[in-house]
Amino acid sequence: MSExxxxxxxxxxxxxxxxxxxxxxxxxxxxxxxxGWAVRDGGAVPGYSIFATADAEVAxxxxxxxxxxxxxxxxxxxxxxxxxxVDATAxxxxxxxxxxxxxxxxxxxIGRFALLTDLQGVSFYVMRxxxxxxxxxxxxxxxxxxxxNELSTTDQVAALDFYQAxxxxxxxxxxxxxxxxxxxxxxxxxxxxxxxxxxxxxxxxSRWTFYFAxxxxxxxxxxxxxxxxxxxxxxxxxxxxxFIIVASDPQGAAFGLVGPRKA
Length: 263
What we know:
Blueprint: E1 14-21, H1 24-35, E2 38-41, E3 49-52, E4 57-63, H2 66-70, E5 76-82, H3 86-95, E6 99-107, E7 111-117, E8 123-129, E9 146-153, H4 156-167, E10 170-176, E11 182-188, E12 191-198, E13 207-213, H5 217-226, E14 230-237, E15 243-248, E16 254-259
Parallel strand pairs: 1-4, 5-8, 9-12, 13-16
Antiparallel strand pairs: 1-5, 2-3, 3-4, 6-7, 7-8, 9-13, 10-11, 11-12, 14-15, 15-16
Helix pairs in contact: 1-5
């Protein structure tokens, strides 16, 4: 979690990603093969591991806590959003009708965080790091880093208003999606963070899906399947000429990949 523990990022930026899963060893091997990540010990946090590229730490890995597993929490990816004041942001979320899984809590030497939910029940972290420097976990089209943050929700308008009010995100351009309405881009300080869309009635639950950049989408797709993952969509071309897939790992956590087609 050391990259997340940096306070150089502005309020509202994505600063870290975390996989909570039922099989940490299997997940380490799977993502190491698909994304080329190395796995390091998390150090200050017992039972916590870190996914890293050759030049940066990008995500964390941990087992689903026993109480959360007993409550039915599935394997999933979660995102951390930088907060100038974790306590104030958590209080604002609760006043707005959101929820709280973990109240503002200190991790000595790392920072202060809270695990919250938006109005549609989608989980996300907020964090204020304890160190100087800037996290590069979100770095569009940089291989191994997150390139796109996508929210699928039952109420796109309410979700956009919620995150705009808490984090200063801005409404960007939109692409029509037929009966699903618009695929609305979200901007922050001149950077496109990702997008929000209405969840299909027959689709998966409301959630954030994080797309990690790869150097060759076809090779990464093959490795996803060979490692026991399931590709639900793609490879499909997106504006700008890149290709994406939406997949789930062998434990069922959803994720996306984005990159060029070299063949």
